[in-house]
């Protein structure tokens, strides 16, 4: 059996959803890179009994390594180190060198706040410098040191701070300790592959996976997770080296059944692919039901200013006419949500911004305003490439207003990707 690990995320603010957990997923990825099987991620509040309960559960599961995040600060509700020490049967002892290190770090910070209570700060310093006897102490990235406690009759435990920057900065030092290296002896080399599809229902992929189970030798060696995200279907497969042939067999079946819908086999997102295809181009957007979300999504990519010139959000017909030069007669004859107006908006964006490519979206996002022939979720798209094709399409997007908006941006990105590929093929 491969080395197994568990993660305990502490913090009442995380448990109650006031703060999103960024540490659990990050540590999970690092464990996978190390060839360690993640068995469990648990989240609990800042209560000593609850933290200890999570540690006890993971010990009962037989994990080799536990990583805790959070609860290393100077306040009373930061109790992870003391709880882990008690769980491991260790006394807390003062580390004078660490106390001096923390004091030096805090002194630089205190210089900006001359009226702060010095004695309270000194007490906080001492609390953070109390470490489990025999533990390996990790130098702080912020003010809180981490610790590693070697397992004797239980797992080795890495105790890391909650702020993601501090945790990530401490990770390499934690993994390099002798205690962790001993705990992860025997780890395997996992391969993880991500395939992304657009235009395939989850039920369709589920049927393919059932067929693969019957026809692909070694299929049971594959750990497969599917997820519908932003209207795309993501399939993540993890396997040990012996499962490589089974994965190749699975992908042959996936390509055979869903080849036209598979747009990424290397884990790249449509956003990343569009960014690459836009190299050397200039693009603008014209949006009437997505509140500028497509422009924002395009500019989320690093270096996006090299190809995104700007965008217009025009809800009112008067705005479409004034800002995008849409002919009022088109709106009167066909309505604002129509192929003709979508094309006019795209052409207007090209003229106004002096670009070679544009995407226009006009639709009925809801919750009201739909008609019998144009119900809520009716969206027209136009992708216009000056030296390539113009694609105009109507899609009925399901869901409430937030769903319609978000899924519409996904449809637009895929239409843009296809148009850019076609334009490239013509050159």
Notable features of this structure?
427 residues, alpha/beta, Molybdenum Cofactor Biosythetic Enzyme, Chain A, Alpha-Beta Plaits, Maf protein, 3 domains, five-stranded mixed beta sheet, 17 strands, globular
Describe it for me?
The chain has 427 residues and is an alpha/beta fold. It is 42% helix and 23% strand. It has helices spanning 12-15, 23-33, 48-60, 80-87, 96-110, 118-128, 164-176, 178-183, 202-215, 244-258, 270-277, 293-299, 317-324, 328-334, 339-353, 401-426, and strands spanning 4-10, 37-44, 65-69, 92-94, 130-132, 136-138, 146-149, 156-160, 191-198, 223-229, 232-239, 262-264, 283-287, 308-313, 357-363, 378-385, 390-396. It has a six-stranded mixed sheet, sandwiched between helices. Strands 14-13-15-16-17 form a five-stranded mixed sheet, sandwiched between helices. Strands 10-11-9-12 form a four-stranded antiparallel sheet, with helices on one face.
Number of distinct helices: 16
Low-confidence stretches: none
What is the CATH class of the largest domain? Alpha Beta
The amount of beta strand, in percent, is 15-25%
Termini separation comes to 53 Å
* Named CATH architecture of the largest domain: 3-Layer(aba) Sandwich
Share of helix, binned: 40-55%
List the strand order in the largest sheet: 2-1-3-8-7-6
What is the name of the CATH topology of the largest domain? Molybdenum Cofactor Biosythetic Enzyme, Chain A
The shape, in one word, is globular
What is the name of the CATH superfamily of the largest domain? Answer: MoaB/Mog-like domain
Number of domains: 3
In this structure, how is the largest beta sheet organized? 6 strands, mixed
Count all strands and give the number. 17
Radius of gyration: 28 Å
Oligomeric state, counting identical vs distinct chains: single chain
């Amino acid at each position: 059996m491969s080395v197994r690990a568990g993660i305990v995320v502490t913090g009442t603010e995380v448990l109650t959803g006031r703060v999103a957990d960024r540490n659990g997923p990050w540590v999970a990825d690092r464990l996978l890179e190390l060839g360690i099987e993640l068995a469990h991620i648990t989240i609990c509040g800042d209560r000593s009994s609850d933290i200890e309960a999570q540690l006890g559960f993971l010990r009962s599961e037989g994990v080799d390594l536990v990583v805790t995040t959070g609860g290393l600060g100077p306040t009373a509700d930061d109790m992870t180190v003391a709880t882990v020490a008690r769980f491991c049967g260790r006394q807390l002892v003062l580390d004078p060198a660490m106390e001096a290190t923390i004091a030096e770090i805090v002194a630089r910070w205190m210089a900006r706040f001359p009226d702060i209570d010095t004695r309270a700060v000194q007490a906080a310093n001492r609390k953070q410098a109390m470490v489990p006897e025999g533990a390996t102490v990790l130098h702080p990235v912020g003010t809180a040191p981490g610790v590693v406690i070697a397992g004797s009759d239980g797992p080795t435990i890495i105790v890391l701070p909650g702020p993601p920057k501090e945790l990530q900065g401490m990770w390499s030092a934690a993994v390099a300790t002798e205690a962790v290296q001993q705990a992860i002896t025997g780890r395997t080399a996992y391969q993880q592959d991500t395939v992304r599809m657009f235009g395939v229902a989850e039920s369709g992929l589920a049927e393919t996976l059932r067929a693969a189970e019957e026809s692909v030798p070694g299929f049971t060696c594959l750990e497969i997770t599917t997820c519908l995200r932003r209207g795309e279907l993501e399939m993540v497969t993890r396997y040990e080296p012996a499962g490589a042939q089974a994965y190749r067999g699975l992908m042959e079946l996936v390509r055979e059944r869903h080849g036209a819908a598979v747009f990424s086999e290397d884990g790249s997102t449509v956003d990343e692919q569009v960014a690459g295809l836009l190299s050397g181009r200039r693009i603008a957007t014209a949006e009437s039901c997505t509140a500028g979300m497509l422009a924002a999504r395009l500019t989320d990519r690093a270096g996006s200013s090299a190809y995104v010139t700007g965008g217009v959000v025009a809800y009112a017909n008067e705005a479409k006419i004034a800002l995008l030069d849409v002919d009022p007669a088109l709106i009167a004859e066909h309505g604002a949500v129509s192929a003709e107006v979508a094309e006019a908006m795209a052409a207007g964006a090209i003229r106004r911004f002096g670009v070679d490519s544009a995407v226009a979206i006009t639709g009925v996002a809801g919750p009201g305003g739909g008609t019998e022939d144009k119900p809520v979720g009716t969206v027209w798209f136009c992708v216009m490439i000056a030296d390539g094709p113009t694609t105009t399409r109507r899609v009925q997007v399901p869901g409430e207003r937030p769903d319609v908006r978000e899924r519409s941006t996904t449809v637009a990105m895929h239409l843009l990707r296809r148009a850019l590929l076609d334009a490239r093929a013509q050159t």
